[in-house]
Write a structure and sequence with these properties.
Helix content is 0%, strand content 51%. Strands 2, 4, 5, 6, 9, 10 and 11 form a seven-stranded mixed β-sheet that branches. Strands 1-3-8-7 form a four-stranded antiparallel β-sheet, with no helix packed on it. It is an all-beta fold. The radius of gyration is 13 Å and the shape is globular. The chain contains no helices and eleven strands. Strand 7 and strand 8 form a beta hairpin. It starts with a strand and ends with a strand.
């Protein structure tokens, strides 16, 4: 059983940057691929990015490509999401999720473990 805890969310102006983190416990974190999803009010949870268990492969939604960067430090059981050039439409609760197996998965049902989320608000 893996527990995930996100942190680092907050309020930032459009064009600014923010880094959020996801810390895992309770399992062999290095075996898991990790994804970030987000959910805006009134919308479905959507895929943002994912990283393979070693960090060698990353995948991004078109909406965040070239602005967001996912990375991981398995020694710290932590995955990071660096968000640059933020836009008001990036405002959402951001969730990290973990799964065994390949990272190239974008559907919520394909992930086994979820964090509680961290709020990111981008003001215009």
């Amino acid at each position: 059983q893996v527990q995930l805890v996100e942190s680092g969310g907050g309020l930032v102006q459009a064009g600014g940057s923010l880094r959020i983190s996801c810390v895992a416990s309770g399992g062999t974190f290095s075996r898991y691929s990790v994804g970030w999803f987000r959910q805006a009010p009134g919308k479905e949870r959507e895929f943002v990015t994912a990283i393979s268990w070693r960090g060698g492969s990353t995948y991004y939604a078109d909406s965040v490509k070239d602005r967001f960067t996912i990375s991981r430090d398995n020694a710290k059981n932590t995955v990071y999401l660096q968000m640059n050039s933020l836009k008001p439409e990036d405002t959402a609760v951001y969730y990290c999720a973990a799964r065994l197996g390949v990272a190239r998965r974008t559907a919520t049902y394909e992930y086994d473990y979820w964090g509680q989320g961290t709020q990111v608000t981008v003001s215009s």
